[in-house]
Every structure is written in C-alpha cells, then in structure tokens.
C-alpha cells in the first residue's frame, strides 16, 4: 500500500535541532557562502520600497536559511575532514578542544574549500547551486514584497508597519530553492507562497455555497505565479461548544476533500483556530487517479487496496501510520498526530562536537507538536462521532447540489487553477537526498546517482502514479542534488503533469470531471466505515479505551441463554460474510483496522492470528466444527468462505517465498505468537489439529520457521504478542509434530537470548524495550507473557525455569492492593484489566500454571485476577484482546478452580445482554466492523462457541494447541 505522504518541514526542523542537542558543531561558512550573500545584499540595497532595517531583516533571514541548509548538506563531510586532520597530524594544539578551534580557523580560509575539490569533485558546484538558488529566491521575495506591500492591507493580521523578521524555509524547497516564507512586522504577520494561490481563492468562494460550517481557508492576495496569505494563529477552543463545532467542521472537510480529490491534508496543512479547522495549504486537489499494478497477493487484496486508496483515506485527513524508513509509525494526519501518541524517531546527530573527534550518531527525538488540534489534550474518541456526522451532513448537501445541477458550475472555476500532485512520498525523497549528499556520493557521484535512479525506478513499479520514465527520474535526481524536493503540478483542465526540468507525465484529462465522476460512483458506506475505523490509527496501544461510558447490559436476563448464544454467534459470522471483499480468482479479504509494528492502519487483512487472515481461518473452521453437531447454527456460505481464506493465505505466503527466492530483500516479519511468523506457524498447526488441512500444514510451518532466526535477530520487542518470546511454544509444538529437534533447539536459543536481555529490578526481572522502556507487566507485552513462555520451555527442554519465576515475581510486585489490580506502567498509577495488559492475561496464565504445578499462590492470583476483571474489566467493548470476552475466559477459569467472583449463568447473561443491547462493539473504533480474532468481533464469536458446555475448542488466549 502506498506510504503516507508527509510534509518535510518537521524533518528539517528536527535535523537542525538534533545537531544543536549534540553540541555546537559550527565550523564557519563565511568564506563559502559570503560572496553570494554579498551579492544578495547588493541586490536588496538597490530596491526601493524597503527601509534599511527591512533589507537587513531579509538578509538576516536568508543568511540563517542558507547556513542551515548548507550545514545539513555537508555536516558529514566536515565531520570526516576534522577527523582526517587529527589522524594526519595536521592539528597540533594541546588538547581536543583547542585542536577543534585550530581546525575551525582553517575552515575559515578559502583554501580549505578549494582543497575539498579533489576528494569531493561534485560537492562545490552543487553547494554553490544550492546557495545561489536560496539567495535568488530571497531576492525575488524582497522585490515582490516591496512591490505588493500596499495590497496586503486586505489580509487580516498583515503587517502595515515595518518588517522586522523573516523566516525562510517554512516547508519544503522546490524549483530553485523556493520555500514558503513567514514575514513578521511590528504589527502583524503574513505568509508568502512561491506558487499560484488561485486554487485557494476558488476554494474560499466554494465554501460560501455549502451552508453553515466552521471550515475556513486563509484570505489570499493572488499574483502571477505566487501570492500572499493570511497568517492563521493557533488557538485552542474555549469550551465544549467550540470543540463540537471544530470536529463537525473536520467532518465537513473530509466530505469536501473526498469530492475535490484532495490528497495531502496532513497535520501541518491544517491549523485549529478555535472552532475553525483552517486548511492553510490546499494545493493538492484533483489528484490524478492511478491504478496499482497487480501485487501477486490475489485479486481480493488488490481490489481492497484500491478501495482504500480511493476512499476518504486518500485525503490524508484521517489517522494513519507511516511505513517509510525514519518515519515508521508516525501519524501526520490532520485529524491525528496526537500528543503522547507518536513514536520517538531516530535522527542523525553530531556527537562529541567541540572536539577534534566528532562523530555521527543518532538520537531518539520527540516529534514537535503541530497546530492541528483544538485542545491541549484532544480526546478524539469523544468527538469522533461528530466528524462522522459532519461528513454525512456535507455529503448530503453536496448530493443535493449535484441533484439540482448546481455542483458542476461551482467546480468549473477550478479548471485553470494550478494544483500539485504528490507522486512520491516526501520522506522517500528526503532519504534519497541524504544518500546523494553522503561523503561517499560526493566523492564518487555517478554510482550514487545511478543507485538513486534505480530506487526511483523500482518505486514506480510499486507506487501507483510514480513516474518510471528515465528522463523524469534523472531530472528528479538533479533536483535532489541541487537541494530541492521534486514537484509535479498541472491544471485540472489539462491533467498532464509538469515535473522537474519541464518533464511531462500522465495523460491529458479533465481532472474536475474525473473527480466528480468518482465521487458520484463512491460507496458512501465504505467511506463512512473507513472513517469510523481510522480512529484506531490515532493511538499507539491496542488496549486504549475511549473516554466513553461503559456498555450497559440492560436488564440482565438469564432465560433462553442457549438460543441467544447461538443467535449472537450466527449474527457475527453473517456480518463476517457480508464484510468480505471477494476477488475474481477465489481470494478474499476484509478492509479493517490492522495492527502491525508501525501501529494501526485501515487496510486489507494481514497474515497473522491477531487480527489477520490466519485468525479468520481459525474462526471459520471452529464455527463449522461446532455447527456439525448442532452447537451452532448452520451457515452454508462458510465452507466456501473458509476455502477462499485458505487460498488467500497460500497465495500470499507463496508470493512472499517467491520474492525471497528472486533475491528481493524483504524486511523481516516479527517473530511473535500473535503478530508475526510464529503466529502463522501456530495457526497451521492448529488448523492441522482441526483436520481442515493435512500434512501441507507441516510443510508450510517448517518453511515459515526457517525465517525465524533472522526475525529473532531483528526483534526488539521480546514479548509474546510480536516478539521472540511468542515463538517459543509454537516451535516446541512444531518440534513435537515433526519429530525434528532443531525447532526445540531454536526455542531453547530464544530462552538463552531472553535471559541475556532480562533486566533485574526490585521484585524480579522484566524486559524493557525501545517501545516500552518501562519494563511492562502483563501477558501480551510484558513479564507474565514472557515468563509463561519460559516456564513452558523449562518444562519441555529444561530451560531457564528460575527466570520464569523471577518474571512472575516481578508481575506480582506490580499488584496494587488499594486498586485490587496490577499496575499498567504505560498509565501513571492506574491498573489494567484486559488480556493484553492487566488482570485478564495474568489470570489466564495463573490458571495455566495452577493446572500444571498446582499451589495456593496460583489459585490466589487467579482469584484476584478474576475479581479485577469482573469489577473493572467488563463493559468497555466485547473483544478478546481488551474487552469482555477476554475477561470472560479469566473468570470462567476461576470458576473451574472454585474461585470465581460471579456464577457462570449471571456472567453469560451479562455478556449476552450487552451484545443484544449495544450491538457487538470491537474495541477502539466502536462503530467500525472488525472481523479479527483478537481485536475484532471474530474473537467474540469464537468465545460464544466456547460457552457451550460440550465445546472442546482450545483457547486462543495462549498460543498453544490445548
């Protein structure tokens, strides 16, 4: 699927901040950039309409911009050169700091830069192009401001007095060093944009015809090829009424951008101004549609990808996690990018600056907050229904305008407005730029250019719309070498795109007509479902619960429990049937929130047990098994659906295997029992036990297990859900099924590795990870799950049993007597009650250990866990992972041990009543259908099957076959 399209402004800011954090690596650049800046000063001096202080403000801003850009380009070269000077003995001062100052004095001489021409023959010409472009762009800005300043009086908040400060580089650099610029005056601010603002003006006019809405765009002054825009200040809403108006306006924007083919509405392109969501950059409208090539993963997958990519997800407004290197897991959507819900990103920094031994390193950096939220701690779950309501409301209004023949005339004014198409992810360009400015590339430019061109060509095979023409690619590489991000634009009337160096790509077409036709053919239900589901992507953790009231079961009725159970299970399976996306080749998938290592994304099912196709195969097999003896309603369509799911799994696994045989380097999948390779191994073994597949299961499980060593080597989560601990028990079961000891030996090696990774703390041991440095407890991500796997390993192979005991002891140290639950170290001072985090999973492991070794301590832990689940874990949603049906299992296991806090009949009646009163609720996105086993309603159906007293289906809440 196509990468999220992100703006580069945050990256530029972070790079410079990261360098400053590491120390002052500040060799002087005057002899390099001074002549061009002197020429700019002379040019500014010749302008009329600018006071001397204003010329100075422009020159100061330009100087800062040029210095920062040059430093970003050649810092690695300079780090290399200072070390070379030290090693060669050219620096003779008494200590490292003095030798640094000695080297800096040499850098101040023109001869230093002249001498770099030999080792880096391409560098100086490219640097001087960057400097010239930036200075020329600054001079052009000054001329335009001097000429246009009297026109700016029409813009709210524009300066009428003297210009005091100028900020260049407020965004990406395009076409000769041109960037957005913020101009600060003594009494206001104004934004300069080096592009046509005609589309902004037409969009502003369109808003006046759409009825009452808080949507806004900045006021603009349009000029030929550039313009001036009102500066929008960020303001939080004053009260709940303003918050509700803001989020309804966001829904309006979603509906309007769906019509207009908007595709780049990320967090930096929208500013919250009280109740007004203001789109401050609307250049990416009427984006040309491009169809993806067949992926090889089946027609259903390709169809689902196209449905998602042409839905409201395309706008960029809805939450979604980036997958590109360096931005993995980052949500930069206009509605998302929540404080506290972004991963730290790793950026290059200069370490040991101020000495003669600086070196390049990395640091974990917090993303700076954007201005897109209307409150300091936004609670999207509370207001998401208003976004959906606003979407429905404006969609109805647009349909009304279309039905009356008024819509197309309103859109006709866009036909000749220049618009931009983002054909490649900006972060991909940023990574290529870093490569092209690496010292090795500056030393030998041709191979680096060839590699960049090859990567862009490969991208064109995988990213719909990305150009593959070698002439265009060469022009893109040229622009990256000159410090710019390549850009493609057109007018909707023409459709064909103009790219770097005047290159052309794409067909001629009427993009307005195309957008209207696609909007008329839209599936509003799909758009609405995708928008509902996208809420989950705003949050990092699978156990987050919206700030909403608990689900009420209504009047708890204990009558007719068995027919009600059967009806509820059948209803869920029919919903699974109805939600399927079927391919012409017999494959099938679902569009749903999917959890992967980058976070949540709305996409086709992945290959795993947690929320993916393997979990669906287990569910469908289980249901048909229970229907055969009459413990579930017979649904004829399930057998062919199961066959389609299995076909899809086979096609996908075979495609990945073929790509590996072709030598394609694939990112290792995680090794976990629910997300990752071990989940696939486990599911094939379970399906074999069910009898739905034969010895093929062992062949496929072996082939998958062969991938685990590389996956384990790359793993940094260690846990049961997605980490190496999750592979232990599936490997032990594979060893038993095949009689091959190598799989048990691999499991034992994981135990050894986990022993080395364990951190001893008061009370026991835990496994801090980059994502969870706290050292969590719990089953899915923490000490209880890892301890369970190690305990099973010890029983099977004589592994580190003491380490398992220490893990269980650490979990017990997290028990809070006052709250009667186990602390969730993600949340300051609060306990958790779910399977993934807290009492649910802790109770299930306690029951397993009680059955295997007995003992009062496990019975006591199970009793406390079940009590915690019953008093605080029921009523948030119905899922296995973080809802009622996961807690049901812990309580039922406690009942079997004689320590349940509630009788079985009342427990079942409560859960069935909640399903009947509220409808099935799948966790994070309450109104979105998710068929998955753990986070979705598939697992609810699975547990409803297991409620029958004669059911022998194994639990899926521990990754085993029992």
TrEMBL record:
A single GO molecular function term of this UniProt record: metal ion binding
Matching CDD domains: LanM-like (cd04792)
Keywords: Metal-binding, Zinc
Domain named Lantibiotic biosynthesis protein dehydration: residues: 120-490
Binding, Zn(2+): 836, 881-882
Protein's UniProt keywords contain Glycoprotein: no
Gene Ontology biological-process entries: peptide modification
Pfam families the UniProt entry points to: DUF4135, LANC_like
Alphabetized NCBIfam families for the sequence: lanti_2_LanM
Name of the protein: Type 2 lantibiotic biosynthesis protein LanM
Source organism of this protein record: Nonomuraea solani
Lineage of the organism: Bacteria, Bacillati, Actinomycetota, Actinomycetes, Streptosporangiales
